[in-house]
Structures are given as C-alpha cells and as structure tokens.
Write a structure and sequence with these properties.
The protein is built from 12 helices and 21 strands. The chain is of the alpha/beta class. It has one domain: Alkaline Phosphatase, subunit A, CATH 3.40.720. β20 and β21 form a beta hairpin. The longest helix is centred in the last third of the chain and has 25 residues. The two termini are 38 Å apart.
Length: 459
Amino acid sequence: MLSIHGKSNGSFCDGISRRRFLSAGSLALGGLSLPEILRAESASSSARDHSVVMIYLPGGPTQHETFDPKPNSPVEIRGAFSPISTSLPGVQFCELLPKLSRMAERFSIVRTLVGMKNRHESFQCYTGRAAGRSEDVEPSGGWPTLGSCASHILGLGSSGMIPYVDAAPKMSYRPYNNQGIHDPSGKSSWPGFTGQAHVPFTLAGDVKSDLVLNGINLDRLGDRKTLLSLLAQVEQQASESGLDSFQKQAFGLLGSSRLAEALDLESEDPKVRERYGKVQKTDPSFGGAPQSPEHLLLARRLVEAGVRCVTVAFGAWDWHSNREGPIEQLSRKYLPVFDHALATFLQDLGERGLLETTSVVVWGEFGRTPRINAKGGRDHWPSTQSVLLAGGGLRSGQILGETDRTGGVPISRPIHVQEVFATLYRTLGIDVNAIKIPDFNGRPRYLVDENRQPIPELI
C-alpha cells in the first residue's frame, strides 16, 4: 500500500486520516512512501530512460505458422500455409505475417529458445524461471519478475514515473495473469523476494478499484476533468498538514498530465487509434486475452511517459483445436490481427524515437508440436519456440538459431530463456554479473542463474 503521509494523525472533515489521505494499493511500494522514494530518486544524478515492453502471448504460439515455417516437410508438419520472403535475404515467415515480413530488418528472431517448462503460466515469461512445485527449489519469497527487479534496482522511471505497469486485461485462466499463479498448483510466488514494494501498478482485474481517492478509480481516469478536480480537493484539504515539495510531486505523479494522460486513450490522435485497429475478441473457452491493439498503444503511451517496464497480454494461443476450430481456421482469424497490431506498434515506437530506448520481447510460455494432431491442432512443445526481440539498442535483422526439419529441436545455437533476460537487463543498464538481491532469508540472489549472459549477437 502506497501512502503519502502528512505530519499529523488527525482526520479531514470527511474522516480520511491525514496519514492515509492518498492510497494506491496496486502501486504497493511497501513501507516506503512515494515522497520518500521521490527524494531518493532526486539524489541520483544518472538519467535512466530505457524501458522494456513484454508482450505475453497466453497459451504458447505456434512457431510453424509464424516465424519458423518448414515448407519442405510433410503437410502434417508444415501445415496449410506457405512461407513468404521477408526484407532479410533468404529469410521466410508464414504468409499470414506480411507486414512483419516487410519490416523484418527492424527486429530479430530467436528460433531456438529453450528452458521453458510445459506449464500454462505467465510466470515463466515474466521471471525466466519455473516455480510453484517442490522440484523447482524456489527461494524464500519466490522469484521476482523482470519488472520487479528493475523497480528494485533502478527505482522510479523518468521524472519520477511509476516504474512498473501491468497493462494486461484480466484473463479468466488465473495463471495467465501477471500474479505469479502457478499451473496447476494455484500457488502464488508473486511478487517474489523484492517484496510488495515492487508489484506492478495494475490497470485491470481485481486491483482495478485499488486506486481510490474520494471516489476516483481507474474507470474514471478517462474523465480527466473530474480526476483533476477530485485530486485538487484532497490536496487542498491536506494543505493544512504542511505538504513538502516531494509530497506535492507525488500528487503530480498520480493526478497530473503524466500518469492520467498516459492512461487516457481518448486524448490520443483518432488517426493513430484507427491505425492500430480494433479489438478482436478471442473465444472465452481459451481463458486468454482479447487481441487488443489499443493495449499496445497504451504500452507505447506508458513508456513515453517514463514507465520502465510495461507488460501486456495479447490473444489466446492454446491451439490444440479442442476449442473454436482447427489450427488453419485459428491462424486465418488471429494471425493477421497479430501481424497488423505488432507491426504498427513497432513502427509507432520507431517514428516517435522510442524504439532505440525501448526493448520489446514477444513470446509465450512454450512452442507447439511439430506434428499436427488428429484434431487439426498443435499441442504443447517446450523443446523450442520462436521469440521476437526489438529495440533497446539491440541489433536488428538477426535470425538466431536453426531448428531441425520439423521445427522441433534446435540443431544450432540454442538460446536459454535466461539469456533473453540477461539481454533485457543489459538494455536497462543492469549488469547481471554484478547485481544481487537478497531473498527473504537474506541469501544474495543473482538475477539469472548458471552464469547466463546477454546474447552476444544482439548487443
């Protein structure tokens, strides 16, 4: 619970304690008040302006129908679609990704990611580790997410902005949500040993009502006039307690043009919103997210406002063909929307000068089986998967690793999930060889295990 503290334990006329007149539970900065953290941030002379956007694809997307087609394999492996050439010589993607194919020089693809478990949970993508089971030997407090570590190490974002925002819609399958819930145990490792101070500010779901201030909640953030009016009323009430400059800055963080405007999509140029496209719902039986291009637009607005780490979920990818239809039908319906939305997002970041300082990772919790099953779908396949990486100063136009003729296992350059994490930390200016965070037992923990290093081809 984040509180801005006054100097008195008295109450305002509406009964709100002066010591708790502003609370934002989903910011969850633990025992430190926001003004205290703003003071600490102001003492730092270094300007840290790099961000990470993690686009999580709930359910695990197919590598064959996206970035690793196998046109010379039998039809039960290659599927119904043909490959098309990309802007990179000799590189092909699935024909359903024409827009990403035309701009392939602007990002890199890892085709040989390893290290994921056969578990339907976002936790693997957000932490780089498996947990929740006895064999995982989880540390005291649990593993923290990349965003939580960045928040712990680097503090607030540009100009004192909230460091970590989860912009994903709430999903009915609980382990898909960014709350450290494990499959199938239901045990939670969230927020890990960085503590409650570093859970993300969450824009949807159970904490949607957590940002409460005399009737303000996230549903009303779009009504900027009402938001600022109510904040002004409380600030006026609090003035008797002697707000200092950092307490006033904390009000500004929550209510001024920074956060409120970033969340207010109504203030975006209508042409930009139209360019991103409309939401396409996914079948509720998947338990995943809609394909919402506006959530990617929101992610752009948040990093533009100074947020260090933004996570967002896009779509529902558990394509066994036990829901909605066979993989051919699902691919035709959902891949063109994914292609358009992601291409638009990357182009928008580039046009605004944000791509150089914003690293983007797009992935799910595992890949899909090389062989199409009897129902016309692909099952879980943790042996390899494809991952898109862009921006943040990373080298683009790289295709890393090669899978066998079926797309089932790496035959060259397997890349571990924690190498991706080491790379993302590097783009944020964090040295994984130097930084340790103590767990709840006081044992220092490296950010990645087994001496994993950033991917040299990308840095």
